Write a sequence for this structure.
């Protein structure tokens, strides 16, 4: 037990301090980052003030438009987002747009109340938030003007033109309501799945490398003269499992932080224990495979092909995640939930989509306990024999013989 | 005391070790000799518990050996490696802890060895920054660190400069005086002759010779001859008497296959004999003679 603990600590510390770990820790964040950050910017519409050159030939809405924009759009520091500068003609405003004194030009023709047509100019039309804001602002002011021209009081016109919003709620089995967010309904489960897949494969590969290194540099001989192969394998798998745990806690805290920032429930704490059970069962299942692969190959290039096959099996739930989330009770989703290498991934998707029956949860946990146990026994048999085989690649009949021994 | 009782190891159709028995007493320096592929490393691995024998048993102080007994074993394998990216002292600490050294004793023991091997300034350097010879010394420390009672050294001197070889020999002698038992596996016969108290010669998995070095040499004494002569002895017939012989400056040395009388009669007809002496053969000569005879 003491030996396992010592190996665990060593494996954990050695990898924890390595550059590879730091990179592997930040890589998934980077990948998620490049997909989320632009969306965040789009959502916020940017945090800079926009200078708009205004050529307004319909003076009757001039004051109302500027007042409406001033009131409706702010930066986070409460400063106005849109600043308007009047120009007599487009020709005079254009040079200022070119030399970046202005960010955009809006031309409102005379008679817009009837023609209902204005123009927007910018160096690039990529910032559609700005286009939307200015479009909404002009449209709202024109509508107000039309209504007040028809004799309505301004506050009546405001009430009449108020648009309707629909809020979405998720109803739990206990009848609790959670304010929904369309994006998060998909993002949450996907986030967990991505996290698990990354943690399993990053640590699986570290484990494979660690076993391979000790084999090729023959440290394994000194180790095996002190500890048993079972202790060595257990210590290594647990050490890297702890590392995976640190990764997941790190990602979770990032997720919680992101959730708090956006004011949404990205993490459901009552599902945490189940998610950890599936993470560890998935990790142990694959760790046993990776540790064994480390004993069968002398270099990573040779191991790569076999690793690829293993990874593809686990990638199926990730690749089909949007289908499985949209169809969490479909037959194929249910069947794949009971195929051991995919079980943890499928169940994490389904649990975070609230689409797993209690019996399925219990049955899949039992299935994973049995599978992990079986895998560890198999791996232990191959590990013990293959660890000291140098220079010769084990053949499948040989591996089969070791398993039966 | 370590006893190997008829241990065997089979790898598929190959018998790597065939019913080997050895008695290694406390304080012995036991030389394990044999040509490449003789079964030395397999025997050592079984002693160290790295692999299990398929037959026979290994005893430690009269009882069947247990994993705990092996905490008292130190091992320097022939093919060496270290965690290249890790720091020297941390690597030593890891192995010290694995071998149940107490946290307190661990650091003082490590510091003592680092100083002895002139590593005091390198304690926090990465292993990869050390020279190959220095890395070998680190491995030697790994074998000694936990104060084992029984140490197996597989080719300990290869790759070391003469100064460090002397340092190693001194440490081995010191430890022996403290009652530590050593097993050497080596091809360097001079080292064995200088250091070992006992030898065991293995070939094709079987023990050919086993016993105190002096007894082994005495047993082979009568057959080793040195003949000084005048004339020409370069005849193929010589191999009938001494299959492996050396001729240099009118002096023939080798180990006789026939009786000395028969050889003397023959050689007398070929050349003028200036002197004829029976001598103690070198271990190398014994090695070659025995292995050839067994083949």
């Amino acid at each position: 037990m003491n030996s396992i603990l010592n190996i665990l600590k060593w494996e954990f510390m050695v990898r924890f301090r390595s550059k590879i770990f730091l990179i592997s820790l930040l890589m998934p964040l980077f990948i998620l980052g490049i997909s989320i950050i632009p969306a965040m910017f789009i959502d916020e519409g940017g945090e800079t003030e926009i200078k708009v050159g205004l050529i307004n030939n319909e003076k009757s809405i001039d004051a109302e438009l500027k007042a409406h924009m001033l009131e409706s759009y702010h930066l986070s520091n409460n400063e106005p987002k849109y600043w308007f500068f009047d120009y007599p003609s487009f020709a005079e405003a254009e040079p200022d747009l070119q030399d970046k004194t202005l960010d955009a030009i809006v031309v409102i023709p005379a008679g817009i109340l009837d023609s209902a047509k204005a123009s927007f100019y910018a160096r690039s039309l990529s910032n559609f938030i700005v286009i939307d804001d200015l479009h909404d602002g002009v449209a709202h002011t024109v509508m107000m003007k039309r209504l007040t021209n028809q004799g309505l009081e301004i506050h009546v016109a405001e009430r009449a033109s108020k648009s309707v919003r629909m809020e979405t709620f998720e109803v739990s089995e206990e009848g609790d309501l959670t304010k929904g967010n369309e994006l998060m309904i998909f993002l949450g489960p996907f986030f967990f799945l991505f996290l698990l897949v990354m943690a399993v494969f990053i640590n699986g590969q570290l484990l494979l490398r660690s076993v391979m290194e000790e084999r090729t540099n023959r440290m394994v001989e000194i180790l095996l003269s002190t500890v048993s192969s079972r202790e060595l394998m257990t210590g290594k798998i647990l050490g890297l499992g702890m590392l995976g745990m640190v990764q997941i806690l790190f990602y979770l805290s990032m997720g919680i932080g992101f959730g708090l920032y956006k004011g949404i429930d990205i993490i459901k704490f009552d599902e945490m224990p189940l998610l950890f059970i599936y993470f560890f069962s998935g990790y142990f299942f694959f760790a046993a495979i990776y540790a064994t692969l480390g004993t069968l190959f002398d270099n990573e290039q040779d191991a790569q092909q076999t690793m690829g096959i293993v990874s593809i099996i686990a990638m199926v739930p990730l690749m089909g995640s949007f289908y499985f989330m949209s169809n969490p009770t479909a037959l194929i989703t249910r069947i794949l939930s009971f195929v051991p290498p995919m079980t943890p991934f499928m169940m994490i998707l389904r649990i975070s989509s609230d689409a797993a029956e209690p019996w399925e949860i219990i049955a899949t946990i039992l299935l994973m306990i049995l599978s992990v146990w079986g895998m560890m026994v198999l791996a232990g048999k191959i590990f013990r024999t293959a660890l000291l085989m140098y220079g010769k690649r084990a053949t499948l009949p040989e591996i089969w013989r070791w398993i039966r021994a | 005391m370590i006893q190997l009782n008829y241990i065997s190891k089979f790898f598929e159709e190959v018998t790597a070790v065939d019913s080997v028995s050895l008695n290694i007493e406390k304080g012995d320096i036991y030389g394990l000799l044999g040509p490449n592929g003789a079964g030395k490393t397999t025997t050592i691995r079984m002693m160290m518990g790295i692999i299990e024998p398929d037959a026979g048993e290994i005893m430690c102080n009269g009882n069947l050996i247990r994993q705990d007994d092996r905490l008292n074993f130190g091992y320097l394998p022939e093919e060496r490696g270290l965690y290249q990216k890790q720091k020297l002292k941390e690597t030593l600490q890891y192995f010290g802890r694995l071998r149940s050294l107490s946290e307190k004793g661990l650091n003082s023991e490590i510091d003592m060895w680092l100083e002895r091997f002139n590593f005091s300034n390198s304690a926090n350097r990465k292993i990869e920054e050390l020279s190959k010879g220095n890395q070998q010394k680190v491995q030697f420390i790994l074998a000694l660190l936990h104060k084992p009672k029984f140490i197996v050294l597989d080719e300990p001197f290869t790759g070391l400069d003469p100064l460090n070889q002397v340092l190693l020999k001194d440490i081995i002698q010191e430890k022996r005086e403290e009652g530590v038992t050593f097993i050497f596996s080596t091809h360097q016969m001079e080292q064995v002759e200088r250091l070992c108290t006992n030898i065991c010669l293995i070939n094709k998995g079987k023990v050919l010779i086993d016993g105190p070095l002096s007894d082994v040499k005495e047993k082979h004494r009568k057959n080793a001859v040195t003949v000084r002569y005048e004339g020409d002895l370069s005849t193929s017939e010589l191999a009938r008497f001494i299959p492996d012989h050396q001729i240099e400056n009118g002096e023939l040395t080798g180990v006789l296959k026939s009786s000395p009388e028969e050889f003397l009669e023959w050689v007398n007809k070929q050349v003028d004999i200036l002197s004829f002496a029976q001598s103690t053969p070198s271990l190398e000569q014994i090695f070659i003679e025995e292995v050839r005879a067994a083949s």
Summary: Chain A has two domains: 2-39+183-404, 47-166. The two ends of chain A are 26 Å apart (CA to CA). Strands of chain A lie at 50-56, 82-86, 104-108, 119-122, 169-171, 177-179.
